[in-house]
Each structure stands twice: as structure tokens, then as C-alpha cells.
Amino acid sequence: CKEMESIGKQCTEAKHAYDQCFNQWYTTKFLKGDTTDDCAALFQTYQACMQEVLKEKNIDLSALKFDPASFARKSSASASASASSPPSAS
After folding, report:
1. Torsion of the alpha carbons at 71, 76, 79 and 84, rounded to the nearest 10
2. Which of 15, 17, 34, 54 could form a disulfide with 59 if both were Cys (CB 3.0 to 4.6 A apart)?
3. What is the DSSP letter of 12?
4. Residue 30 has what pLDDT?
5. Which region holds residue 33: left if phi is over 0, alpha if psi is between -120 and 50, else beta?
6. Model-level pTM?
7. Cα distance between residue 23 and residue 74, in whole Å
8. Residue 15 neighbours by CB distance under 10 Å
9. Coil, helix or strand at residue 87
10. By C-alpha distance, which of 61, 40, 63 is closest to 52?
11. How far apart are CA 7 and CA 47, in angstroms?
């Protein structure tokens, strides 16, 4: 499987490092209930690189805010709630 390059070529190495960490974490920990974020530092490095690229390309994402830790907690809670809820009758 060929890894995708980052939109910012200078960020591709950071993207690949984060992708590899995330995929490993997801399959070995998250799917087993461990939501400890092992890849936060790699994500922050990639995010910082991408912020520079977006700035250079005059792409403004200031209206968008994303907290990956908050997203993981919400996703985990949502998955738990849907797993414990009985299926709805259609």
C-alpha cells in the first residue's frame, strides 16, 4: 500500500510518521479500549508543519477548531452509548 504524500511536500515525512503511529495505536490499543494518545507529539509536529503550509498557500482555516483528544473522547463515548443501546425498531 503506497502512502499518500502530504499537501505540503515538506510535511510528508511528518505525515508518514504520524500515520504509522496512528495505525499501530488504533489496531493494538484503541480497538481494545485503550484511548491513551500515544501519537500526540507526532500529530503536533505534523499539524505545525501543515499550518505553515496553509499559511504559505493563503488558506485560512481559523474558523475551524479541532481538538483530537476531545474528538477521541466523544467518539469513544458515542461508541459505548450505541453499543449499550438496544437497536431501534424500524
Report:
1. -140
2. 54
3. H
4. 95
5. left
6. 0.63
7. 19
8. 20
9. coil
10. 61
11. 12
3: which 3 cell numbers?
502512502
SS3 28: helix
79 contact partners, CB below 8 Å, separation of at least 6: none
Nearest to 29 by CA among 17, 18, 21: 21
3-state secondary structure 54-88: HHHCCCCCCCCCCCHHHHHHHHHHHHHHHHHCCCC
Cell numbers linked to 18: 504520524
**pLDDT tier for residue 11 given thresholds of 50, 70 and 90:** very high
- Quote the CA–CA distance of 77 and 80 in Å, as a whole number: 5
User: 19 or 86, which is more confident?
Assistant: 19
Q: Residue 39 has which C-alpha cell?
A: 501519537
Task: Give pLDDT tens digits for 33-63.
Answer: 999 999 999 999 999 999 999 999 888 877 7
